[in-house]
Amino acid sequence: MLLAACSTPPDTSQVAEPTAELSAQEEQGKRAFSQYCGACHSIVGDTSIVGPSMAGIATRAETRIEGMSAHDYLIESILDPGAYLVPGFDNLMPSTWGTTLTGEQMDAIIAFMLTLK
Ligand code: HEC
Hints:
This protein is mainly α. The protein is about 40% helix and about 0% strand.
């Protein structure tokens, strides 16, 4: 009997590998990202739509605000987009995600964004 074989998520300690598969949570975040954020944010490098591309955001987020972790910067950028404006962009991102998204969706989107190194 191999009942559990298909439902076991991949080991998340491996997500740093560029070719590693996404965990179940990161997959959920990817889907939510394309649904809610994809109209304004590409994940392909150098492609701005309304907002900046998210290619490499996990690395960039670390450096945006001195002393703030990538995870905390992403949360702030989503819940309070006007707190830090990416140079060259206007304050056009909705600030309603705290009510639009469930906590589970927020966590999943952030987990997905942290794979975009
Ligand atoms: C209506 C267009 C729009 C939508 C929809 C939108 N954004 Fe944005 N976003 C922007 C703009 C414009 C900026 C640049 C200005 C700023 O920094 O707020 C931005 C900036 C960001 C940044 C900062 C990027 C950096 O390089 O520092 C993050 C992170 C971000 N958005 C995440 C999201 C996520 C996650 C969603 C979906 C839940 C989303 N955005 C939905 C327009 C949008």
